[in-house]
From TrEMBL:
Organism: Herbaspirillum rhizosphaerae
Protein name per the record: LysR family transcriptional regulator
Annotated signal peptide: none
PROSITE patterns: HTH_LYSR (PS50931)
Domain HTH lysR-type, chain residue ranges per copy: 11-68
Length: 316
């Protein structure tokens, strides 16, 4: 029902265009010729408008068609509205792309934002001061369509057919520990040995459950007695850096600390297949120039980044 109502409202615009042309023509046939439609379409449009307003728009007989007083008043109002609508689209079609303006709403995980996203977004903000960037940080998977998000960035799996998604990088996962924890507990060489050691646990904010740890060949394990539990990846990283527990961290979170020697990777032979990093947007109609600019900039910058190793060997 709601869809039919929307279609009816959209059709009213075309009906008013036809009505105005009929009012400005000698008869319905002339209006039809000028618009490239059949006289029957003109007649039907006028009849539907008369039914909608409950008023006659034309006095009609076999010899002539004459607009009524109500029809003349409606014609002037309709013509003003249609001209304003045409001007709106004319202005949009002739707008200089250098005059980009408006809000672009973005959702992204906090773990990627400071290091990878802010430099890109801040440059866009400086280059295009009329664009307002509305960035919402969340590890929760946001419904871009329902929440009116223009662009999303996510690690993992994205199978929603409503989205236009571009995989831009591969994200590896490393099991890490501080040198101090390694000195206390030793290096695990099997998954069985790993679960006997202190492990961190991250709560999936989408489900409220603890994330499993992923390994090669589809293997998964979960902490038996977690030494530390949180729903914030940055907090988990801090606990791993401080030697509280072993943690399975994304490569882009662990890599700077691996290079500095603050973290050591273990079980490299069991690292899982890297996940995709996506930039996506809803698949709906024309894309505003401001959204396309931000989307393309994020895709280009993240695709070109060398900070996404596919295994722990390439991280060092």
């Amino acid at each position: 029902m709601q869809r039919r109502n929307r279609e009816s409202k959209l059709n009213r615009i075309e009906q008013l265009r036809i009505f105005c042309m009929a009012a400005e023509s000698a008869n319905f046939r002339e209006a039809a010729v000028r618009m490239g439609i059949s006289p029957q379409v003109v007649t039907r449009a006028v009849k539907e408008l008369e039914a909608a307003f409950g008023e006659l728009l034309f006095h009609r007989n076999t010899r002539q068609v004459r607009i009524t007083a109500f029809g003349e008043r409606l014609m002037h109002r309709a013509r003003m509205s249609i001209n304003a609508l045409d001007d709106l689209f004319l202005d949009n079609n002739h707008r200089n792309d250098n005059e980009l303006r408006g809000i672009v709403r973005i959702t992204a995980p906090s773990t990627l934002t400071r290091t990878y996203l802010l430099p890109i977004l801040n440059k866009i903000a400086l280059d295009h001061p009329n664009i307002t960037l509305d960035l919402r940080l969340s590890e929760v998977i946001t419904d871009a369509v329902d929440d009116k998000i223009d662009i999303g960035i996510r690690v993992g799996f994205l199978r929603d057919s409503r989205y236009v998604a571009r995989p831009v990088a591969k994200v590896a996962f490393f099991v890490c520990a501080s040198p101090a924890l390694i000195a206390r507990c030793g290096v695990p060489t099997t998954l069985e040995q790993l679960v006997e050691r202190p492990m961190s646990a991250i709560v999936d904010r989408n489900t409220g459950r603890i994330w499993p740890w992923y390994f090669a060949d589809g293997q998964q394990v979960g902490p038996r007695l977690p030494a530390f539990i949180t729903d914030d990846p940055d907090t988990e990283r801090r606990s791993v850096l401080d030697g509280v527990a072993f943690g399975q961290l994304t490569a882009f979170m662990a890599m700077p600390h691996i290079r500095s020697g603050e973290l050591v990777t273990v079980l490299p032979e069991l690292e899982p297949t890297p996940w995709d990093l996506y930039v996506y947007r809803p698949q709906r109609g024309p894309v505003p120039a401001r959204v396309r600019l931000v989307f393309d900039a994020l895709v280009d910058a993240l695709s070109a980044s060398g900070d996404f190793p596919i295994d722990s060997k390439s991280a060092t």
